[in-house]
Design goal:
five-stranded mixed β-sheet; four-stranded antiparallel β-sheet; globular; binds fe (iii) ion
């Protein structure tokens, strides 16, 4: 029953009902930032490189607290590998951050990263509600065969794919 409600909430099909003790499901799982984080990424919602042959993807969703309250102004910092599985460790290709809007929504335009040695395709993110603690985690693609061989992969960190968009709501403490 709870699981069903969580799933509906996750799918955006069930609106929080006032008056009920509202929980937003488990807090988003934390994962290692890995070796390729670079601080001070540019403020930008599009990481698309004009010449990139990578498949375009919109990565979007909301930042919520454990009571499903939107977190306007939450920082969302995104970094990921390019279409060949390489990170830009000199500059800021495929690195950027933005702040969630008044409804706690965020939206990036980028590409689908390629896999690299030992890793299934994934996005790295840091999410920080205003005045709150940083959540560092990673997001995964549903149905990707390499997920099974990646020891960091967790099904609860899969995006929900809708056309050319990958959707994920972060639930932060
Ligand atoms: Fe990585």
């Amino acid at each position: 029953m709870m699981l069903t409600r969580r799933r509906l909430l996750a799918a955006g099909l069930l609106l929080p009902l006032e008056g009920l003790a509202q929980t937003c499901g488990p807090l988003t799982l934390r994962q290692t930032e890995g070796p390729f984080f670079t601080p001070n990424s540019p403020l930008r919602a599009s990481l698309v490189e004009p010449s990139s042959p990578g498949r375009r993807l919109v990565l979007a969703g909301r930042v919520l607290d454990g009571q499903c309250r939107p977190q306007p102004g939450a920082l969302v910092d995104l970094w990921h590998a390019d279409e060949k599985g390489a990170y830009d460790n000199q500059g800021y290709r495929y690195r950027g951050h933005l702040f969630a809007d008044a409804q706690g929504r965020y939206r990036f335009e980028t590409i689908v990263p390629a896999r690299y040695t030992g890793r299934t395709p994934h996005y790295h993110v840091k999410v920080q509600p205003k005045g709150g603690r940083v959540l560092t985690t990673q997001l995964y693609f549903p149905g990707e065969p390499a997920n099974r061989r990646d020891f960091l992969y967790r099904p609860e960190l899969e995006m929900r794919m809708e056309g050319e968009a990958g959707l994920f709501d972060f639930v932060v403490a």
